[in-house]
Batch of 4 targets.
Target 1
Amino acid sequence: MKFTFLDFEKPLEELHQKIEELRTVQTGESAIDVSKEIEALTKKSDSLLRSIYRSLTPWQISQIARHPQRPYSLDIIGAIMENFTELHGDRGYADDPAIVGGLAKFDRESVMVIGHQKGRDLKERTHRTFGMPKPEGYRKAARLMKLAEKFSIPIITFVDTPGAYPGIGAEERGQSEAIGRNLFLMSGLKVPIISVVIGEGGSGGALAIAVADKLLIFQYSIYSVISPEGCASILWKDSDKAGEAASILGITANRLKELGLVDSVIPEPLGGNHRNYEFAFAKLKKELGQNLRSLKKLKIGDLVRKRQDKIREFGTFKESS
């Protein structure tokens, strides 16, 4: 797959093209040695990449979170877990491919893993409704969570969705009820729950599988009550002001950590997870292992109480005269 450069990375794309052209010359029948030129341009590209990523705006971070080559849930499951067995259907209406889930082994321990899943090409994106679940997707997730609780299996979820699917059929089948029921269910499950925002976490569509004992987020991921475009459309009737909305919303990982809404920020490689899967997977596996071990030390009653206390502390306010 051809690497995709974002709008603010255009200078990098130009350097990348020059490097590839020189490499073509180097590997061809020509006797010209251009290795020094390639090395110089590569150093310049690395330096420019550091410069760009040193001062990213919230809107630019939003674009990184949505990068089409960023690792998705199934990529992560395949890399850091073993013996994944996907389970399908909500036992009521249908299977929703926008949410994947099933049993797997993580560090030789059984876990129930659930995550949003987008698509790599138009056909798969359409099949998975661009990672936007319908009610049956959330009900499938609820079914798997109850199964995990029945057998005392920890739950790990991966969040990556623009939001719940907004179609008429989804509303007719009880979209808001399905999301609300998941929030209630997860607040009281008697097993450890760890959620990780791996891309974009949008609105209730994300929150429906993100009520957890520990909420982790990758460095260039976002988590918000509404997308920047949606916020701009409501406030200014102009989606082109999404960049301004992104700055106001406080959707970036570091800002969320400052507000106490996430527990840990997982570092990403320079340029984002899409540039180095191995780095991303190693950091995530280490963070998941540490958090899972600490949660398993708690008694079930204490685990649920701490989770519910954490939920009650969200949304503090001050009264003014």
Target 2
Amino acid sequence: MLMAQAGKLHVVSFDVPYPTNYGGVIDVYYKCKALKEIGLEIILHCFQYGERKPQKHLREIFPQTYYYPRKTGLAGWSPRLPYIIHSRRSKQLLQRLAADDHPILFEGLHCCSYLGHHKLASSRQFVRMHNIEWQYYQHLGARESQFFKSLYYKRESQLLQTYEKKLHKAHKIMAISKNDRAYLNQNFKNTSLIPAFHPFNQVISKPGKGRYMLYHGNLSVNENLEAANFLLHQLEPIEQLPLIIAGANPPQSLKQQCNERKVKLIANPSHEALNKLIQEAQVNVLPTFQDTGIKLKLLSALYQGRFCLVNPPMVEGTGLEKLCMIAKTARDFNKQIHHIQSQEYTQVANEQRAKTLYQGFSNQRNAQQLLNCLSPQKD
């Protein structure tokens, strides 16, 4: 059943959600697309900054798409509010949201400047949480080697933890993982689990064997750099199963280390080239050292790749544990890889994987569940 208010929903996105080349915008874009496919009209509001520009493609799918410049640098700074939130304020956005009483979905704590605003009192307001943001920034601060960056992350974490209390004003909070929901339920009783939205309609993993192991991710992000460095330094070289690292914007330090260890580094592969790398690998090796949210690279590997080897922070609380091989230590990783290199990925394993993924990560099913959360009679 569609909502009573003409079947329209305001979605406020922290970034322009196209192209879909990183985790957060993937969830936003495919969520909006899935909601439209079940009959909801999306009014999309995007904060725009950096290299991500207004997209003709978005307006073709969502005719009511609006853009607002994010206030970066000193213009976005506040002594009391987190930078990621204060920099995403727009009087024009508030005016558009207040012009009707359609429900509003704020994507991430980033977009919650106007959550609970008196001008929006007639609209039901919802928040999609992509991470527990203060924990995410706490992790960033702990792992940042540059003093001033580390100081910024730690300050941002403290401000975000305080600001998080504003979530009490939401009619409902939508967590992206079981772990996030457990945390949010301790503080807010109006939390539901809506798993990540993604671009995959079916499992296309190829039975058989591959000739390499693959790590992929945005290599300009410290979290992914840490994972890549772990693999470079801790994995034992296997001639029959060499390591390939692929991803966007690798720093010179990573290029040098890959060169020294004779590891192939593929910088800035196209979307198609990266998908092919994932599909042809024998094993996608995906450690992480930040157990926040859900990593969409994990879904990409499971929908497209063969074996998937992870550590506990990558998979715990996702419902995908039984689809992965799990290693806790460097020794465990090496032991698992030596076992995997001689194994064939089977059609039976593919069918079991498909069943689990369709149960928990169907865009259509999760869009209907989200729609139920938005409906007044379901609140």
Target 3
Amino acid sequence: MYVSPTKGGLVMLSDMLSKLPPSEKKIAQYILEHPQEAVSLTASELGERCNASSAAVIRLCKSLKLKGFQELKLRIVGDLNKSEHEGYRDIKPNESVDAVLEKMTTNSIQALRETSEIVNLADMATVVDVLIRARNVHFFGVGASSIIAMDAQQKFLRINKPATAFTDVHVVAMNIANMTSEDVVFGISYSGETSEVYDILQLANQKGSRTVSLTHYGNSLIASAAQLNLFISATKEATFRSAATSSRLAQLHIIDVLFMCVASHQYDKTVQYLDQTREAIRFMKEQRS
């Protein structure tokens, strides 16, 4: 039995704020500014406070991919009960090593915490089941997301799950050409707007394969193309974003969770496969010594 998380409501509202239509945006802004008050209101009362309707409140919850206003309120109550933390902190000129270490650690923890709070456990369980049943899993990402794809491939190969992580879109397309409904294509893009990943997911859909996306939270081109969606928090990346540090860690975290869930469901086989891969690596090292 999978129970929805009881935190992350304020993160969801903040992440989605700029993408909401005007009536829903007013309500979201009000909740972010008055969370304590908002959780004590009904949908009708909240709508009246925002010069909107109760229907707009319900539409907001749907935009957040929640079951209803009650779930949103429960998540916000959970947020209000959390201990205070510093949030994302940017690096300043000529920072000391200890200051950079402390800030980066804080930012990384924050990204993982917010991502865990917005996870839809039922959706993740479905993806785990799809991965377990898959004949092959094809991970695909561009740029920094290709690193996530290669990490995922390496993990699943270790437990005897056939997986690929090609970075060339044409090679991936050729791979998809002979896929069936037993194959899974897993598109990774923090922005959710990478055209190459979108095209690959669309091609996989045409071939009847299962498609999964991993993007930042909210509506996006790639999420619309995939049959199953997983999200990380739309982290507030610092100025020095070239390595997409916080978002990369959150993506790796989701891959790790999926891997561990699959491994747990086939525990005895996983132990056997891991022993065999360790033995193979040990043999190769001995050959070079």
Target 4
Amino acid sequence: MELTVAQLAERLGAKLSGNGSGVVNRVWPIDGAGSSDVTFATDQKFAARLAACRAGAAIVNKLIDAAGCPAPQLIVGDVNTALIEALNIFAPPLKPGALGVDSTAKVAPDARIGKDTSIGPMAVVESGAEVGDKSIIGGGCKIGQNSKIGKNTRIDCNVVIYHNCSIGNNVIIQANTTIGSTGFGYRLINGAHRLIPHNGGVIIEDFVEIGANCCVDRAKFGNTIIGAGTKIDNLVQIAHNCVVGKCCLIAGQAGMGGSTTLGDGVVLAGQSGVIDNIQLGTAVMIGAKSTVLQNVPAGKKMFGTPAIESNLALKIAALSKKLPELFDRVRKLDKRVNQIESAKDNKN
């Protein structure tokens, strides 16, 4: 898509400063942007780089001083909000999947398929399953027995949703993710590990987004629950009977042990882990590569392994850099003390 700068300003609800007749067709970072690109500056540090920018237009905040920018400016209240809209406007056009059931798909006679749905090639929808209106089931997906998919939900290629799972409305699940697999629970009986049956399900509430190659295990009893509005990155493991609150953010390679509970608005950074039966309060933030071994009250920021309050963890990290120097000083002091003690002994 191509738009004049003036047209883009109108679409973004931005105030235009400069000539709006130029044509732009994509969003690009400041350093590589050309005359047909629209760029952006989220703060004053980036705004300072606009002076050398060759972009066709720049999205800036009304509080940013971008006086040195040669490009027309699209002045908005929030750059990130406008950037999301601009990226959607200039997204590459893709042909939508055909409505209806592909001839190679297999849909059980008693499965319920809503209006204006798309069931892709080689997909399987088993007995008792439901797919809501305007939902998309990608090629190679499997929807297990008695599982329910809500309205306007997109299940990308090769996703597996086991039996007795419930997926809400306006959900996105990206390729190769598995929902409802058996949890990792065993008991040592007579010298052998025996799998504990997992007879529960999974509930994924409305407006949840789950990345590629994630696993959400089914519960032993009851349900593993992902709260409304939660966003999950790629390669995330959520174990059996976990309860994730609303509007949480879980970054790539994070993992949660069984029966862990996250309050609303919790953030798990990349490669962080939470052991089983832990409770994290509302708006808790866990830093990258941290491991949580105990309950965390609401609002705390934690970091490290084991995770402790981030301010203390950063102090410890800073002091650890001085350990070689401190060790040398202690060794020299120890040597000096031994010399003094030896001198005293000789006098005696």
